Amino acid sequence: MSFLYPSFLAALGAIAIPIIIHLFYFRRFKRVYFTNVKFLRELKEERSSRNKLKHLLVLMSRILALVFLVLAFAQPYIPQANSKIVQGSKAVSIYVDNSFSMNAGSGVTLFDRARRKAEEIARAYRPEDRFQLLTNDFEGRHQRLLNKDEFLNYLEEITVSPAVQTLNDVVNRQKQALSDANVQQKNLFLISDFQKNIVNIENDTAYNLYLIPLQTDERQNVYVDSVWFETPARNLNEQAQLLVRIKNSGNNALEGSRLELRINNQVKAMRDFSVAANNQSIDTLSFNITETGWQQAEVQITEPSTVAFDNTYYFTFEVAERINVLVINPASGGGNAYLNALFKQLTGFSVQNQSENQLDYAKLPANQLIILNQLRTFSSGLSAELQQYVNNGGGLLIFPSATANLTSYNNLLKNLRVNTFTALNKNRRETDYINTGQEIFKDVFEKLPNNLDLPYANSSYDMTAFANTGEEVLLRFRGGASLLSKYDVGNGKVYLCAVPPDLQVSNLPSHAIFPPMIHKIALSSGKGKLLAFTIGKNSVIETDVPPATAQNTDEVYKLKGTDEEFIPGQKAIGNKLFLTIGSQLRQSGIYSLFKDAAKPAAYFGFNYNRLESVLVYFTPDELKKQFNFSNIRFFDDNTDLTTLVGQIDRGVILWKWCLLLALTFLLFEILLLRLWKT
């Protein structure tokens, strides 16, 4: 047994007071007995013995009452194992997991149980202690310390939220809030279902950490993880292929459920799907694009789980009326006849021919594809602009001149970090390989014949073959040299050809493979825009929406969904507008960006974070094994935390028993004095 205030034990010296009184009151006198009262002697001796017993009992009652009263002030306790009792006020941070997965549970949800446990913890502490309430929302008001009543009021206000945080970020946030608290002890509590994909705690021995895992039998969940198109561009009156990844985080397979695609509130495609237990499936939905402009889309599945926030995936995409292509030609020559003839036959393309000395660099980003047609050399300004254009998401197709200045070319190619030209090879070479697995030639042939006629070149440039360029060979000469290669550079693509589109050099421009090759390069070039964003994750969004002009600096864009509207942070950099979402957006769905509500400038799809969709949890035993540290303790969900936390904080408290015993002995003394008649 230990004492919280051992200095009070000095008051035990007060025990001498009733002893002194007792000795003084019962001081012995010398008595002389006369014969005429001798017959009373036996009666007095009998009464004296009874009085002595009574007063001894009174003395013992007073002594014990004083002893236990002093002990009550000294506050004795029995310390728990591995617990250190600290005097003074304490700072307590309690994290309540309010993510979507906490909605699991039949009857009483995990979230309701978590709030009840937080209340039990708070009631275990004293009025002078201070508390922080933390949730996944990381709200500013939850970063200050509260008294007990304020904490309990805030606890009633929190609700389930789409925000998701890793537990390491949560603990860092707790330590940040408690770092300036002038207290003797700092305790951190985490109440969560402890999903495996959010548990990454780094231990800090300066804090006491208590984990309260809440368990549920809800383990089955099938959800839409992501969607993407087979090609980066969508064109009017063409068929698009949408790929949908569906994941099953449960132990039971899902058979024959419905997958549905809606665009602009119209059903465009549907199919049945199945997904094995603890597995995923990728299904393809085909549909025809019949409208230009922004398309608001959603993919939805039906599945039996009670966790339904992830059954719908919202996304948007834009269908341009025309694809802009810029052909840059030498100053001394005109456009290329083969390219001009090809684009005249292709609908949906807007092609401009410009000479290299008449370029408007500011208009380069408006094009999805730029074709360099047999330029002999590059200016440093054009080289820098092309590098920036590709890094920002543009597509660049390079046809070298037969008399190219290789130093100028290679300066551009080195800056783009692709292979460079070495020398002009004047030997005739024939193509023997076409990469039909790559998007450019994937759908060109129904069946590839064994004796396929492929292009040849009378002369062509040799190229380096560096391993770190990420080269994908699309057409290859016999012997291994590349005729056409593709490179991913920044957010864009570079296509490098070893021959110019000139029949005196190669039959490529007149070959049957040339039209679909150029067509698919134009369709596949450009930056693939994000189809959707994740709430709480994509905090900054880059848009092509023109920012407010200098004459209209008061104009601001707004985001509006089905149930909410707000003004995001916005910053103009060049001709781009960057939107800062922060924590303002909390509801999944399609949001329109506008200055004038009647004329939206863009649409964005926002979805809840899929981290919460994986219903795989740490068991209490797994947590204990992973976090086996002296300053980390675990509480069972079924225990009374008010009692248990109180015992850890102050040990098994005995002062109440001491006070009760003191009152008992005082009562015993009163009864002796009143009822024991002498």
Strand order of the largest sheet: 15-14-16-17-24-23-22-19-20
State the helicity in percent bands. Answer: 10-25%
Estimate nothing, just give the exact number of structural domains: 5
CATH topology descriptor of the largest domain: Rossmann fold
- CATH architecture identity of the largest domain: 3-Layer(aba) Sandwich
Main structural class: alpha/beta
CATH C-level name of the largest domain: Alpha Beta
* Envelope shape: elongated
How many H/I helices?
12
Strand content: 25-35%
CATH superfamily name of the largest domain? Class I glutamine amidotransferase (GATase) domain
The major pleated sheet works out as:
9 strands, mixed
Keywords:
single chain; 678 residues; alpha/beta; Rossmann fold; Immunoglobulin-like; 5 domains; 34 strands; 24% helix
Short description:
The protein has 5 domains: 2-79 and 655-675, no CATH class; 90-218 and 617-650, von Willebrand factor, type A domain (Rossmann fold, 3-Layer(aba) Sandwich), CATH 3.40.50; 222-307, Sandwich (Immunoglobulin-like); 323-524, 3-Layer(aba) Sandwich (Rossmann fold); 533-603, no CATH class. 24% of the residues lie in helices and 29% in strands. It has 12 helices and 34 strands.
